[in-house]
Specification:
Layout lengths: L16 H4 L3 H11 L10 H4 L12 H40 L12 H20 L8 H26 L10 H13 L3 H38 L4 H7 L1
Helix pairs in contact: 4-5, 4-8, 5-6, 6-8, 7-8
Family: Belongs to the jagunal family.
GO biological process, one term: endoplasmic reticulum organization
Membrane topology: Multi-pass membrane protein
Amino acid sequence: MGGSRKQPGIASATPPPDIREGGSEGATVLEFASRPPRCANCLPRELGKMPEQRPEGTDGSDHLFRMLIEDRYHRLAILKKFNRIFFYCNIVLMVLMSAWHLIPLLEGQPYPKWAQILLALEVTAVVFWYISEPGTGREKLRRLKLYGFLTAVVCAEHLLTRLTYHGKIKIHEHDQYPKVASRYLAANYEVDRVFAQNFLTAVEASLDTLVFVSLLLASLVCRNYILERRAPQTVEEEKKAL
């Protein structure tokens, strides 16, 4: 009739007071729903990052090559260190062996000819070592290769002379050094000859073994060092080699 009665089933077009007046919860929801997004295509920075295309030539093999080069540099540093160690060891042993070969002079016998040859070869190897300038930017591998070759020759000749010296083949013009030295000590210093000969024989055997092992290891280390130096030193050279 005259009043404003609401018919059942028909929703009122007028919003509730709290929404119409911008009240608390409803206004916030409506404002957020009606507000346009600032950037419809914006994504969080982490989600918006797309995987970049891998540059050409970097298919993963570069890492393997770099690992190979790094390992090679590590081996090269170790070989360079031991190459120098065995070189100085051989110098010390060369001096000791040269002094040991002076024993025949105690009885007026000449300096052994084969010992002179060994000494000349060892001195030549030392010269080639120094002029090759190993471990520097001016390193010369050909001269270093000659040093390694001469070291191997001295090692082989040392082994041959020791076998003939201690064996039954008589090619030396004097007695064995312990016998000569023990006779000299017994005659001049009243030292027991048997004890002196046994002691000097043990010293001689130890010295011979040290010289042979040092020369052998020096030649092998030098050979491996030269092979590593000739190997590719960069990723590009490694790829070309393969």
